[in-house]
Amino acid sequence: MPRDPLIGLVGKPSSGKSTTLNSLTDASSKVGNFPFTTIDPQRAIGYLQIPCACARFPDLSARCKPNYGSCVDGRRSVPIELLDVAGLVPGAHEGKGLGNKFLDDLRHADALVHVVDVSGCTDAEGKATRGYDPSQDIVWLRSEIVNWIQGNLMEKWSSIKRRHVATKSSPVETLQAQFSGYGSTPSLLALTLSRFSSAHALGPLEAWDEATISAVVSAFVDDKFPTVLALNKIDHADADKNIAKIAKGRDPQTMVLTSAISEVFLRRLAKQAYVRYVEGSEVVETREDLLEDGVEDGGGLREMDEKLKTRIENLRDMVLYRFGSTGVVQVLSRAAELLGLVPVFPVRNIHSFGSGSATGGGGKDAVFRDCVLVKKNTTVGEVYRKVMGDAPLAYVETVGAVRVSEDDIVTSGKNDILSFKVGRA
Ligand SMILES: Nc1nc2c(ncn2[C@@H]2O[C@H](COP(=O)(O)OP(=O)(O)O)[C@@H](O)[C@H]2O)c(=O)[nH]1
Ligand SMILES: [Mg+2]
Asked: Which positions are tagged coiled coil (predicted)?
């Protein structure tokens, strides 16, 4: 059965992992008691913003009442699990810091967010300094992961080799036996190995030298752990030159500029009724702004003292107007894009899109109560087993009561609204 996708936050101490996690999980959109809210202190539920299925049908938005998360004007916040992988320092794979403990946590992650302190005010160990070059962190952190996996492999390499030859296994079979603990699949490994062109042919596995093994492990890490860089602390004056250096020659899709502390601050002020803030946007309104716009009683917002007003002004100038937002919400969207996550909307009734029950507080007119996130290339049948377990499946319908096959790959906008009929066909 496919697991729920899990996004791991990595980065050296004091880069801002906990702040980023808090900024993403302390959402006002958190309604209902999500069952996994307190699995352990490192795990939390963030909210991924996606276009909701209700937006495709006129007049349905008002009746869209998610069981978990929220939906505002067709923008839906869907719960997604986050893991704070703390304690990563140079030398971790040899046991420095928390050592292999966090590397073991990593196994469960589908994508990584590497939180980088771009202010240059913390060194590789996370100690306070000035003028540190954060592009180094990107290099060493990745090599820690590669070295960890390679180290585990090299320890057993001679017996792996012997078994490979004796059982006449394919390279994918042999590697899958070694890498399944990191969440590999045969198709992922086939993809990884296909990256080596005939010009850089790998040759038979039993003849691989250490450099070849290293290249294979490195390619596997890229495929298994797609990574978004969250260049954090952009509110700091030293950030600009460091960002420019890191951005050079990188795919911009894998990079987001963030100020996690600003997001935490804005959400707190909104909760205390000092501002109106649309999470993840550049829109912050104070009582004065609203009064100016003719909103009665300033929208009921509270008066701020001069100090607080100045902080808001600075935050607008340094972060929101310069970068368009605090960036943290985009971090999750980017990670979801890298993973190719597809939101699927299981409904009881394919005509009304209702759940057919009045439980859960949404009323019996509520539509699109459920949304599950699945990885790309997931089939309709796999979604069924994830949602309904082992019960026998009679047939599946999508919009217009059109039958869909269990083997169809779910695709956004095509067959992502599904009604499962339990029983014998
Ligand atoms: N200036 C600035 N400081 C931040 C930002 N995010 C986190 N910090 C500060 O960096 C320090 C370490 O943050 P923390 O989240 O505990 O880092 P962790 O060790 O990676 O979990 C704290 O003092 C935070 O207040 C940010 O966006 N801007
Ligand atoms: Mg922390």
From this structure: none
Final residue of a structural domain among 216, 234, 249: 216
* Residue identifier of the C-alpha nearest atom 14 of ligand 1: 16
Helices 210-224, 186-194: crossing angle, 10 deg rounding: 120
On whether both 96 and 133 belong to a single domain, the answer is: yes
C-alpha distances out from residue 122 to 129, 130, 137, 326, Å: 5, 7, 11, 21
Q: Which residues share a beta bridge with 275?
A: 286
Cβ neighbours, 10 Å, residue 338: 18
pLDDT single digits (tens) 161-211: 999 999 999 999 999 999 999 989 999 999 999 999 776 789 999 999 999
CB 369 within 8 A of CB 362: yes
CA of 303 to the centre of ligand 2 (A): 33
Assign 3-state DSSP to the chain and report helix, strand, coil percentages, each to 5.
40, 20, 40
Element (H, E) at 43: strand 43-51
Q: Could you tell me the pLDDT band of residue 30, with boundaries at 50, 70 and 90?
A: very low
Q: What is the DSSP letter of 56?
A: G
51 shares a domain with 31: yes
Ligand 1 binding site (Cβ under 6 Å of any ligand atom): 11, 13-19, 232-233, 235-236, 259-261
Number of independent structural domains in the chain: 4
